[in-house]
Design a protein that fits this description.
Layout: E1 5-8, E2 11-14, E3 19-20, E4 30-31, E5 36-37, E6 50-51, E7 56-57, E8 71-72, E9 77-78, E10 87-88, E11 93-94, E12 107-108, E13 113-114, E14 125-126, E15 131-132, E16 150-151, E17 156-157, E18 166-167, E19 172-173, E20 183-184
Antiparallel strand pairs: 1-2, 3-4, 5-6, 7-8, 9-10, 11-12, 13-14, 15-16, 17-18, 19-20
Length: about 190
C-alpha cells in the first residue's frame, strides 16, 4: 500500500483527514499527534500534520482532548499554538471571550472583586466587608500584603467590594482593623 493511503481486502483508500498513513498502512491508520491536525485527505507523514493555531483547540481523533469537536478556545480558557486541550485561565483572572491564545489574554480580576478558581468566565464575587481587594485578587478576604489586599487597617473602613482602604471621614474614627464602617466621634472628643 503506498504512502498516503490505507489498504484492506484489496481496496486502496486515501488516508482521511485527521490521520496520516505511511507506506504499508493497513486497516489501522495513525492520528495526528496532540496539538496538531490534518484537514486534508492523503497525508503520509506525522511531520506534515499542521500545528493548531493560537486561540483554537483541535482535538485528536484518538480522543486525546477534552473536547469532541475542536474549535475556538472557550471562555475561561486560553489555547497556545499547538494545543489540543484548552488551558484554564489562572486564579486571579477570568475571561468571557472566545479565541484566547495566551494566558495574558485572560483578564485580571477587577478591583474590589476576587477570582478564586481557575477557568472562570466572570469574577467570583465582591471582596468581603472589612477587607480590600486590589486587581488580580484571588480571595474575598486576603490574608494581608498591601499589594495583594488584606484586612482593612485601623483608622480606615472597607465596605463590601473595596479595592483599597478608605480613610475614616472627619467626625468618625476606627480603632480596630477589619471594619466595614467607621464609628461617630464620641461626645466631648474631636475626630
Amino acid at each position: 500500500c503506498p504512502a498516503g493511503f490505507h489498504c484492506s481486502k484489496g481496496l486502496r483508500r486515501r488516508c482521511p483527514p485527521g490521520f496520516y498513513c505511511p507506506q504499508k498502512t493497513g486497516i489501522t491508520f495513525y492520528p495526528c499527534p496532540p496539538g496538531t491536525y490534518n484537514p486534508s485527505y492523503g497525508l503520509s507523514h506525522a511531520e506534515r500534520c499542521q500545528q493548531c493555531p493560537a486561540g483554537a483547540s483541535v482535538p485528536n481523533p484518538s480522543g486525546a482532548t477534552n473536547t469532541s469537536s475542536g474549535g475556538p478556545c472557550p471562555p475561561g480558557h486560553f489555547c497556545p499554538a499547538g494545543t489540543s486541550t484548552p488551558q484554564p485561565c489562572p486564579v486571579g483572572t477570568y475571561s468571557d471571550r472566545l479565541h484566547n491564545g495566551q494566558d495574558s489574554s485572560c483578564t485580571e480580576c477587577p478591583p474590589g472583586h476576587f477570582c478564586g478558581s481557575p477557568g472562570l468566565t466572570a469574577p467570583s464575587g465582591p471582596c468581603s466587608p472589612g477587607y480590600f481587594c486590589p486587581p488580580g485578587s484571588s480571595s474575598p478576604s486576603p490574608p494581608g500584603a498591601w499589594q495583594r489586599g488584606g484586612p482593612c487597617p485601623v483608622s480606615h473602613f472597607c465596605p463590601e467590594g473595596t479595592s483599597s482602604p478608605l480613610p475614616c471621614p472627619a467626625g468618625t474614627y476606627n480603632n480596630l482593623s477589619r471594619q466595614a464602617a467607621c464609628s461617630p466621634c464620641a461626645a466631648g472628643y474631636f475626630c
